[in-house]
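Re: the multi-chain job from yesterday

Posting the exact lines I submitted so nobody has to dig through the queue logs.
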Amino acid sequence: MMRKLLTGNGAAAWSARLARADYIPAFPITPQTEIVETLGNWIDNEQLPARMVTLESEHSMITAAGAAAATGVRVFSATSSQGLLYAMEMLYTVAGWRAPFVLVNVSRGLAAPITLEPDHNDIMAARDSGFLQIHCADCQEVLDSVLMAYRLGEDERVRLPVMVNQDGFYLSFTREPVDIPDPGAAARFLPDYDPENIRFRASAPVSQAVAVLGGAPYSYFRYESHLAARQALEVYDEVAADFEAEFGRKREALEAYRTEDAEYLFVQLGSFATKAREAVDRLREAGWAVGLLRPRLFRPLPEEKIRQALAGRKGVAVIDQNLSPGRGGVLHAELASVLFGHADMPSILVSFIGGLGGRDISTEEFFEMARVTRRAVEDGKAPPPRLLYTETELREVRKLQAIANAERADLEKKP
Amino acid sequence: MTETLFKHMRDLPSSHLLGTGTPTCAGCGGLQALHQIYDVFGGKTVFVNAAGCMTLLSVYPFTPFRGSWLYTAMACAPAGAQGIRDALDILLEKGQISADEDLQTVVLTGDGAAYGMGLSATSSAIERGLDFIYLCYDNEGYGNTGQQYSEATPHAARTSTSKGPQGYPGNKKDLFSIWAAHKPRYVATVIGAEPLDLARKIEKAREMPGPRLIIALSPCPTGWDFSPDATTDIGRLAVRTGIWPLKEYENGKVVHTRIPRKRLPVEDYLKRQGRFSHLFEPVRKEALLAEIQGRVDAYWEGIEG
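And the result, structure tokens for all chains:
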């Protein structure tokens, strides 16, 4: 084992190397580019016996990734934001091919307005694609999750591609100490890929991804994908147990932090949950019975574990770093559907939207979210979704608007 | 390769690889070309398909192919070919498959994908020197959806989205030249109605490495509005009127493999098809006919000896 300071992107590249990925279709996009640059350098310096090809788009990149996986090699790829959306048609398509591979997504907000900074609308847009999803909170977790993702996706009970999500900038460009496992240990945990019957060979012709006529075969194959994704819940727990045995790190489907006696819980995905952890510690010091739940596995969603973790709690603050305009936070809606109709579930589920386009969520805001949630429990009524924004931020935007208006007025005055 | 195996019609393959009973329309010129091409390729192929008429060849649980098949989407079949080719090369290099397990990677798309949505993916596959064959069956419109005009639709043709008195106002994109401008290993035009010319070109392409691209003009009874038994006649007329030049690009040069002596007037070809009937009825549109003839004449000027 080697301990190194690595960015999230560096950790992602190391994970592909330790997974002995054969094939890396690539396309550059900020903030993911360092991953493919690192892998490309290793290949050029003969430190990684893989083949990398830069396609002309993410749409083609995912097609090549799926086609190579369908031919029977281990495939790694990475993208972000607009790239993930440009590939959207093929995300759904290759997931249906049932050829497993791993795609790292470095979360970044979506246009318009165009931005480079992170939020989760990109990965949420891929929610229903058929890819499994693992969400990471730190750089070590990125490396660990990719190795786990191969085991999960390649399992014969699953056979689905997996996305591993890390937040742009907050993880992609942040250096943290990361344990890099020995290649031998990585190979013990993740053996070579056995494509079994997913392959193209001259002696065994096969038609893959053919058309169907009518709803019966269509529904059958769609249901198969769904049931395979559901089976991934059980497989995930086995993979996590093996991972802990080999590397000593717990990587549960649902991470619980100081929840034992908690009356109120934050629920959040990704790296901003580390901010929530900090807030939980501070609130605990102030005498609040607060904890944090962080689903690492988002597809499939570990519903039973979530219900067990939320049973008997008073109120939940769901913090979404995404926005479904006209509706609100995606995680909030998901959670509500998990709890509805089950006994002993918290009746108050407050929705907060924050951290869009790289906007920070401060510790004070976590305190305020806890207060709002407690008040809602006391009133017995959840308020409408709260859009986190401060007066200072509004003043800043007003200043920008004033400049824009002044510039326009100036232009209009000219003949 | 120095010598062709196909000197006479009788040398053409007599065993046919592509199965029968496909759901293509009667008289499909694309299927006619594909039959002949597949016989020369052989079954050690994987067809990588984009959305189009031929997507319906392989409908679960049937396929007419002896070899393999992967359906991708409309824009990205060449990228699918890239993934398969690269994966096969990786497996060969690692000794995980033997050379006789290797497959020829063949992209199969219509003109909608080839001339339009898939052009970017094709351009970069050629630029990367991908070892593959691209086979475009060109029926000059989005045939599978009811023959709306595509970037391959010829001037004045009536399609389901160009029903006005002048037909389609645009001009057929010169995909052969666009492909050739990338300097790939080989580009050729073929047509099912000229099987010897077709077989020689496919035989040649089969033996070459690198990007090889074929456009097969595919007379389409449903889309072009003619009787299914006229497919071959119309195909021959496309060649003999000079509308569809049979040619190949290799080593920076374009060679015409068939120069029609005594070109027939284009209207011999046009009047056989309902999609051009508005050029003749209720009154002859002399200006449009002259324009079409003029373009064909201009093309052949300098090529005909």
